[in-house]
Amino acid sequence: MRCFIAIDLPEKAKKELISVQKQIKSKNPDIKAVFVKPKVLHINLKFLGETDDAQAKKIKNALKKLKFEPFKIKLSQAGVFTPQFIRVLWVDVSPKEQLVRLQQDIDSMLEKEGFKQERRFEAHITLARIKFVKDKFEFVKNIEKIKVKPIEFEIKNFSLKKSTLTPEGPIYEDVIKF
Question: Which of 24, 55, 78, 124 is the catalytic position?
Answer without folding.
Answer: 124
